[in-house]
Design goal:
Two copies of one chain form a homodimer. The first copy, chain A, has 182 residues and is of the alpha/beta class. Chain A has five helices and eleven strands; from the N terminus they run ββααβαββαβαβββββ. Chain A is 24% helix and 35% strand. In chain A, strand 10 and strand 11 form a beta hairpin. The two termini of chain A are 20 Å apart.
Chain lengths: 182, 182
């Protein structure tokens, strides 16, 4: 069975988006030639993706899913499914029964692969708060955005253990295991 | 001439102290055997230290300066110097004329060594906000504290360039150069 991996791009000051909701260059590494290896590894390990509604809407609006290398089923946590299907031919499943159910269904779909929780901050915080996250991968981008949407907000204390650090041009990939209290 | 280096221990969620002002284990690596190499390098490069008044009071109260490996002059940014001298035999200079003057005097004292801005968050933010910081070294500790004092708050957008990443047990040392707009 795969893991639930929080997988997010973050500025050094902890934002996943800038003051006006702009991406602040946080995703540049993903589309750069030097990002290829990390992206290929992630695509290979990922069996399903879980995102929030705003991330879905943003991806749809910007035609982002048409260019995504992830062909796996995307689960979207939402209060109300959209009226028209998204562009891009990807399989989207809308879950209205809360984060536990969304993670459960994503896990079943992922099989031996990981469920990658890809944002936004709200769904990430819900997953962390509910103790559903096994690993956190932070792609730390060398910039202070100075404001915006914080990844870690209102989550409470969570113990971590460093698993791996990979430094690359324009980004440092930091992987942590979440220490669960039994 | 040395550099002005912001040099701070930070949790993965960006705090330099926990919700009740506790250190949250952020300094453990510094006193662990595996931290020796990084500490020795830092001590060797540091020509002066700049701290805020609360950090000074805390260090004095906990007898922290008596155990510090840094024998260099410590500059303390404050509104009012304390009435009695600190314990520990270290040389403290209290600067009441603001952050620019404090950095300037620390630089003169440091000679070819670096001025290490060692906290707290307020003096770090003042230095960053005034464009006085050449490099930022974040000692990233694998824990989410869930609240407390944030290192990067109200600083505005600052461009950075990754210089070096060193992973060690219980901490990742991340060094960045501040990109100054000319």
């Amino acid at each position: 069975m795969g893991k639930v991996l929080l997988d997010m791009n973050v500025s050094l000051d902890g934002f996943v988006a800038g003051p006006s909701g702009e991406d602040g260059g946080l995703h540049n590494w993903f589309f750069s030639p030097s990002g290829g290896e990390a992206v290929a590894e992630s695509v290979g390990n990922t069996g399903a993706i879980l995102i929030g509604r705003r991330t879905y809407d943003q991806g749809d609006r910007m035609d982002g899913f048409a260019h995504s290398p992830y062909a796996v089923e995307h689960f979207v946590l939402t209060h109300e499914p959209p009226e028209r299907p998204a562009r891009g031919g990807m399989k989207f499943t809308f879950v209205t029964e809360g984060v536990e159910e969304a993670v459960e269904r994503a896990k079943r779909s992922a099989g031996d692969g990981n469920v990658a929780v890809g944002g936004g901050a709200s769904v990430a915080q819900q997953c962390l708060g509910a103790g559903l996250v096994d690993e956190i991968q932070v792609h730390l981008v060398p910039v202070l955005l100075g404001g915006g949407i914080r990844l870690f907000e209102g989550v409470g204390r969570v113990g971590l253990e460093g698993v791996r650090v990979v430094d690359a041009p324009g980004v440092t990939h930091l992987l942590y295991r979440v220490l669960k209290e039994d």
